[in-house]
């Protein structure tokens, strides 16, 4: 059974982000908030890969490609948030989360679910922005190739 490319590339996003954050933790760089922003590169990679596959298959309809790109990035985001929740509970629950929130964007002491839901919303917004940025790139590339 062949997995849909959106699911396959969404899992690639999840694995990339997971390995990146585990590597940051091992190297002792998890407290550097600006390094956390590089996870967007994995979302770009997986989403771009889906769009590239679509165009190689001859699928050039803007709406179906936009849906495919958005689905890929959302799968990666949802799996990453689920992974964060699981990892946080394995590492000690709210006590582990408090070490993250000191160096991140939260004040006070958020629960794992509050933290994860806010990251989920942030991830959804990032997924939409990245998907449409890549759609503009691929749409312009396709148009200029035909002229």
From TrEMBL:
It comes from the Bacteria. Keywords: Membrane, Transmembrane, Transmembrane helix. The chain crosses the membrane at residues 7-26, 32-48, 69-92, 112-138. This is MotA/TolQ/ExbB proton channel family protein. The lineage of its organism: Bacteria, Pseudomonadati, Bacteroidota, Flavobacteriia, Flavobacteriales.
């Amino acid at each position: 059974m062949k997995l849909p490319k959106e699911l396959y590339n969404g899992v690639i996003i999840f694995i990339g982000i997971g390995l990146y954050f585990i590597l940051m933790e091992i190297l002792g760089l998890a407290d550097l908030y600006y390094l956390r922003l590089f996870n967007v590169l994995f979302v770009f990679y997986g989403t771009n890969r889906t769009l590239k596959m679509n165009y190689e298959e001859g699928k050039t309809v803007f709406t179906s490609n936009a849906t495919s790109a958005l689905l890929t990035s959302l799968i990666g985001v949802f799996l990453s948030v689920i992974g964060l929740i699981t990892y946080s509970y394995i590492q000690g629950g709210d006590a582990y989360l408090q070490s993250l929130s000191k160096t991140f964007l939260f004040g006070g002491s958020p629960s794992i679910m509050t933290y994860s839901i806010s990251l989920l919303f942030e991830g959804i917004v990032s997924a939409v922005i990245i998907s449409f940025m890549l759609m503009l790139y691929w749409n312009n590339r396709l148009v200029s190739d035909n002229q």
